[in-house]
Amino acid sequence: MKKTTLALAVAIASLTSVANAALPDDTFYTGAKLGWSKFYDTHADRVDGATKASSNNVGGGAFVGFQANPYLAFELGYDWLGNVKYKTSGEKLTAHGASFTGKLSYPISFITDDLDMYARAGAFVSTARWKADGEKHSNTDVSPVYALGFDYRLNQDFSTRLEYQWVNHIRTDSNINPDNGMLTLGVTYSLGSPSVPKASELEVRENRYVLNEDILFSYSKADIKPEGQASLDELVKTLVKLNPSESAIIVIGYTDPIGSNSYNLKLSEQRAKAVMNYLESRGVPAGLISARGDGKSNSVTGDKCNALKGAELRECFAPDRRVEIQVQATTIQEVLVSEQKTNTK
């Protein structure tokens, strides 16, 4: 069988097709939220002349964050918690403040790759103002703040979040130190999402199909996306015609140099196996194909990205994040023996 030059031109999908819940590493983002706020332990019986405390309000806030890696982010925010009005007595408590929290996320991939569950925890610097008998008093203190929520990625730049936040023990200059719970719906905008490489930037190489990671997988995931499946379906039309006695197909996963060796090696192996399994499910003979992950090795970008940082660095490394499907004019057994000999030198 003659060696054939194989080329796969991959069309880049729209922004919504590359959605994933976790932002790229070293990305800043900003957002706002609005919802329902309620104070607890308001103790109307401790306020002279008060018959009831009204503590349901509209609450909300704004925040900026930094995504350190797919699972960890840090946020600085400002929250308006609303007020407590004591009926009959006319006294009023108003609270707001700034927070600094760490945010841990976990993907809920069994539902969709675009959804994360997260938890936040940190410190809330509250300012509580007490108004009584025409006089105003304020107190500033630090309280613990906790939050649980869900992030849903709409596209490369925008995501939504549903969150319940709890501020514990807001201190005032009176004998009432309430807690606050706030349920909000928010919108997040990425300030540094790297651009998706254009199709013209994909290299054509002899005897290899080269597929960019962004076509096949969501960020830091190993589940093949629908548009990735469509590209592989086109490839299958060629691969199923090969003669198993004369050819071998090797699926190799690669990552960019960002991150640890162990993490990148594991991710590249998972992605290569996912592609291999998909091709087999579409009719490519199992005895014709094998898979391996080479992690961050065999970079095609060289040192041209060394001076870049953040989003520009990740965009520059895009050609390294790929899956190569090599077609070799030999049997799979001969390929494995040849590779074993090479590795022992």
Present the secondary structure layout.
Blueprint lengths: L26 E14 L11 E3 L1 E12 L4 E16 L4 E16 L7 E18 L2 E19 L4 E10 L11 E12 L17 E5 H4 L9 H14 L8 E7 L6 H21 L7 E5 L16 H7 L5 E7 L3 H12 L2
Parallel strand pairs: 11-12
Antiparallel strand pairs: 1-3, 1-9, 2-4, 3-4, 4-5, 5-6, 6-7, 7-8, 8-9, 10-13, 11-13
Features:
60s Ribosomal Protein L30, Chain: A, Porin, alpha+beta, disordered C terminus, elongated, eight-stranded antiparallel β-barrel, 5 helices, four-stranded mixed β-sheet, 2 domains, 345 residues, disordered N terminus
Description:
- With 345 residues, this protein is α+β, with helices and mostly antiparallel strands.
- The chain folds into 2 domains: 27-190, Porin (Beta Barrel); 197-343, OmpA-like domain (60s Ribosomal Protein L30, Chain: A, 2-Layer Sandwich), CATH 3.30.1330.60.
- 17% of the residues lie in helices and 42% in strands.
- The protein is built from 5 helices and 13 strands.
- It has helices at residues 213-216, 226-239, 261-281, 310-316, 332-343; strands at residues 27-40, 52-54, 56-67, 72-87, 92-107, 115-132, 135-153, 158-167, 179-190, 208-212, 248-254, 289-293, 322-328.
- The strands form 2 sheets. The chain has an 8-stranded antiparallel β-barrel. Strands 10-13-11-12 form a 4-stranded mixed beta sheet.
- Strand 5 and strand 6 (115-132) form a beta hairpin.
- The longest helix is centred in the last third of the chain and has 21 residues, at 261-281.
- Residues 1-20, 194-206 and 331-345 have low confidence and may be disordered.
